[in-house]
Structure formats: structure tokens, C-alpha cells
Write a structure and sequence with these properties.
The chain is mainly alpha-helical and 137 residues long. It has four helices and no strands. α1 runs antiparallel to α4 and α2 runs antiparallel to α3. The longest helix has 35 residues. It is elongated and about 55 Å long.
């Protein structure tokens, strides 16, 4: 049994779960918990979260890109229509990565942070759907 493809797939799924799960948590749980806070408190907490999250997010992005590249290059057959679905997934992945990196910055308004996490969450859920489509092709 070759463990490298298994490890690569596990790394890909785990990294994706961290990024998308974190966005879902931030948008639908953390944002609601912060509703009663003042603007200064929200900003300070958001900056502290961003500082703590940044190294983990960058590591997850690196693992996701690395494992995804490995998985694509070692795919035995590519079915008709695969490239179209894969291209859509990559556009969403680039959006997720760009916004995730931006979320690691400090000094971002909490309203903007909420919109960005919602965008990551929706793009991520759509990318997961596209992954399911690619899996059956």
C-alpha cells in the first residue's frame, strides 16, 4: 500500500476543512457573539484573532496548494469535462486563498471582516461541491 497518496489526500481535506470551517465559525458563530461589543472592542478582538490565525492559515494554504498539486499530477486518468470543473474550482480556490491572506491583516473593519468570511465560506462550500463532481468524473 502506497501511503503518499493517502497522506496527500488527507492533508488536502484537513487543510480545506480548517480554512472553510474556520470561515464558517467566524461568520456564523463568532460574528454573532461579538454583536453586543463596541467598535473598538470588535477591532481589538479581530486584530488579536488575525494575529493568532495568520501562521495557521498560511500553513493550511501551503499544505492545500502542495497536496492539491500532488493529487492533480498523480491523477491516472482525466475524464472529458474535467478541466472545465477543475478550472471553476481553481478560480474559487484563488479567491479563498487571497481573502484568507487578507484576513490575517490587522486593522480591518469588523463589517468587512464579516463579508470576507462569508465570501470564503460560500466559495469554499461551492469548491467542495465541485470537488464532489470531480471525484465522480
Amino acid at each position: 500500500m502506497d501511503f503518499l497518496p493517502i497522506l496527500s489526500r488527507w492533508t488536502h481535506i484537513t487543510s480545506m476543512a480548517f480554512i472553510i470551517g474556520g470561515a464558517l465559525y467566524a461568520r456564523f458563530i463568532l460574528a454573532r457573539a461579538m454583536e453586543g461589543m463596541g467598535a473598538t472592542e470588535k477591532s481589538q478582538l479581530g486584530d488579536r484573532i488575525a494575529a493568532a490565525l495568520r501562521p495557521w492559515m498560511l500553513a493550511a494554504i501551503a499544505a492545500l496548494v502542495g497536496s492539491g498539486t500532488y493529487n492533480l499530477l498523480n491523477k491516472p486518468m482525466i475524464a472529458s469535462g474535467y478541466h472545465m470543473w477543475f478550472g471553476m474550482k481553481m478560480l474559487l480556490a484563488m479567491h479563498i486563498i487571497a481573502v484568507a491572506v487578507l484576513l490575517g491583516r490587522q486593522g480591518i473593519d469588523s463589517g468587512k471582516r464579516n463579508r470576507w468570511t462569508f465570501g470564503i465560506a460560500m466559495s469554499g462550500l461551492t469548491a467542495i461541491l465541485l470537488s464532489a463532481i470531480l471525484r465522480v468524473l
